[in-house]
Design brief:
single chain; 308 residues; alpha+beta; 8-stranded antiparallel β-sheet; 3-stranded antiparallel β-sheet; 8 helices; 17 strands; globular
């Protein structure tokens, strides 16, 4: 079984498409089409995206596209499942801590910033009707679909690539959010578990074999920046509206879909000390890395000696 690969950057992150016994050109075209649609529907960094226009004109209810409706429904489900630890109304807080542009640009800024503790509005403020496909966002509330939107894009892209090929198998990674569809290589897809998704796949480190489902990694060590004397990262604590102070610097979770894996990984970091018990309640395999580098493997996650 042969494996072909294409790599590029989109949505501010690295994109990797791998196919087994399939048409890499067809798979790549399908993934690019999905990412283009995602960018136009719910990018927070392009002013003409559907989501940006809604955030800029809060206070009224409007009908939205099927893709944005899917993303909103996904984000609200994540909020419910995580008891609000993953919340789509963090948009204003993200801008307040300086994450108001593509990350490659904001990390070069060094001017001081003033941070104020302020709870976010909360997902209950969103008025969404999935059947009518209408969305109402109160004035002053900004939606940021963030990593949940990226994970959804991975799931959609993998499915679209598999359909476009008409056979074989595909793996799609968007910044470490990894989804698969169709056939798998003998022994499973070999995944290097790394804090930085830009780490070359042939680097030293822990490798697991993924035979089904998806995997996502959330970390406070990669998307970091400084503004004056303040060190910041992109994971917002909904209780305070500022970057979370967690005992975990990285969480990797395997689940049925990339959305589920990403939801759990992000919630684990925000939950902090209660994360292991919470993850165990869902029967999820996870790998948590403490701030000092200590590794905790949960559920069916293989021990270091059993890794692929």
């Amino acid at each position: 079984m042969t494996v072909e690969r294409e790599t590029w950057r989109a949505l501010g992150t690295g994109v990797h498409v791998l196919v087994t016994d399939g048409d890499i050109a067809a798979a790549t075209a399908a993934v690019r089409a999905v990412l283009s649609e995602v960018d136009l529907a719910y990018s927070r960094f392009r002013p003409d995206s559907e989501l940006s226009l809604i955030n800029a004109d809060g206070g009224r209810t409007r009908r939205i596209s099927p893709l944005l409706a899917d993303a909103i429904a996904t984000s609200l489900r994540a909020a419910v499942v995580t008891d609000g630890r993953v919340d789509p109304t963090v948009g204003r807080s993200m801008r307040a801590v300086g994450y108001d542009d593509d990350f490659d640009r904001i990390r070069s800024r060094t001017d001081p910033i003033s941070i104020r503790l302020e709870p976010i509005p909360g997902w209950q403020a969103i008025q969404f009707d999935s059947r009518a496909r209408t969305l109402g966002v109160p004035k002053g509330v900004e939606i940021d679909l963030g990593s949940i939107g990226k994970a959804l894009a991975s799931d959609l892209a993998a499915a679209a690539a598999r359909e476009a090929m008409g056979g074989g198998g595909v793996l799609v990674s968007l910044g470490g959010d990894i989804a698969m569809a169709g056939d798998i290589p003998e022994g499973g897809w070999r995944i290097l578990v790394a804090e930085d998704s830009d780490t070359p796949p042939d680097s030293d480190g822990e490798v697991i074999a993924l035979h089904h489902g998806a995997i996502a990694t959330s970390s406070t060590t990669v998307r970091t920046w400084r503004r004056g004397e303040i060190a910041l990262h992109h994971l917002i604590d909904p209780l305070t509206g500022v970057p979370v102070d967690s005992p975990w610097r990285t969480a990797s979770v395997v689940a049925a879909t990339c959305v589920d894996a990403n939801t759990a990984a992000t919630a684990a970091i925000v939950r902090g000390a209660s994360a292991p018990e919470w993850l165990a309640g869902f029967g999820l395999a996870a790998r948590l890395v403490g701030t000092a580098g200590d590794v905790h493997r949960l559920g069916s996650w293989p021990a270091a000696s059993e890794a692929a």
